[in-house]
Amino acid sequence: MRNTSGLKRGSPGRPKGVPNRVTTEARSACAEVVDDPVYRERLKARLLAGKLPPALECLVWHYAKGKPNDDRQVTGNEGGPITFIVRKPWGKKADGQ
Predict the structure, then answer these.
(1) If you write DSSP's letter for every residue of the chain in order, what string do you get?
(2) Cβ contact 55:47 at 8 Å
(3) Alpha-carbon distances of 23 from 7, 15, 35, 36, rounded to whole Å
(4) Domain map of the chain by residue range?
(5) Which terminus of the chain has a lower count of CB atoms within 10 Å, N or C?
(6) pTM listed for this prediction
């Protein structure tokens, strides 16, 4: 198929392998804040006072102790399959009468 748009294929955009400038700048700015000793002391004080938002406290735990696996395996008795019992509601017939 012929390219009729006048643009090179794969353009516009940044070339492959070139890091995103905004992401790099944001990462650098965040690192600067986190590395500030005054900020770290205030963060520690908020954490110990119980005033840190729960999501951020959870993140602190993940960084400190590692995030638990999201992979869960559920089994029945003695490692066998789970058995489900389906019961019909009392007082109604299956056809809705």
Answers:
(1) ----SSSPTT-SSPPTTPPPHHHHHHHHHHHHHHT-HHHHHHHHHHHHHT-S-HHHHHHHHHHHH-PPPS------GGG--------PPTT--TT--
(2) no
(3) 26, 15, 18, 20
(4) 21-68
(5) N
(6) 0.46
